[in-house]
Amino acid sequence: MPNHTLHSKMDDMNNRTVLVTGATGFLGRQVINAFEYRQWTVKGTGFSRVEGTSFLKVDLSDEGQIKKALDECKPQVVVHCAANRFPDKCDKDPEGTRAINVAAPRSLAKLCAERSILLIYISTDYVFSGKPGEAPYEADAQTGPTNLYGQTKLDGEHAVLDEFKAAGKEGLGVVLRVPVLYGPAERNEESAVNVLMDFVSKAQANGMKIKMDHWALRYPTNTEDVARVCHDVAVKYLEAQDRASLPRILQFSSEDRFTKYEICKVLGEEVMGVSIDRIKPNTEGNDPKASVQRPYDCHLSTRALRHLGIDVSTQDFVGWWRRDMRAFRH
Fold this sequence. Notes:
CATH architecture of the domain at 9-183 and 220-255: 3-Layer(aba) Sandwich
CATH class of the domain at 9-183 and 220-255: Alpha Beta
Structural class: alpha/beta
Helix content: 40-55%
Number of strands: 11
CATH topology of the domain at 9-183 and 220-255: Rossmann fold
Largest sheet: 7 strands, parallel
Oligomer: single chain
């Protein structure tokens, strides 16, 4: 290879820019860290928490603001982390949820496709029904969300992939499904896993009895691991000679399996060193009258990532909580 070609390729490697939406959020912060650590130029967008940061304030419901951000930052990659990701909150605001989980990624995908920008859209295991005996789900398995959150994220997947297909840019739009996340948090309520620390603490401090789900299976996955995979996917797709032949949908998950009650037991007895005798296991499953029906087991197969040669290892759940004291907010 001629020297000038080699130098050109090295320059391209060293001058990559990523734009992360939801950069001030629970996952977005770790995606920022992962790309910065690997010497990328990193830009971020946020909306409600950008004051005092270097991130751009962008209303993702405004296509003009998205366009301006893309044209200012000129990224090769966008990682779309912004979403309404709490099922109960989604049910309370269906219109707003569809705006952020469906309309916004459609606009973002359209504008990225026009500019030949790789878009990684973060989706969820809740696109599946999670019926007993069906998991683990391959990336091409039949979907069937049980609640509005899962449906809007699935609709967002379709919106992203449809926009890139319509533009003739298939291979630049990629869906990455992940399960429930845990990791470094500014507030425990940022994570459906981290917040269980608060339940353990309250049960101890107040002497109150709490019923905790001991039915649905969950596979808590660390945000730092998800962020690393986002980076590795970005590199793999940018460098691919035949990008159109690569899979459109990828999935990443830990193999650590717990119910919410079992997570409380780990956090209480193995991490905090306290009894959880006031937290009682609830094995009844979904309340048929509840507006949000949660799936039993949506475990994601990581086969597609492994076939690409991407590292799917994850941090040990118990080990991380014992080791990383930053996670403690109790």
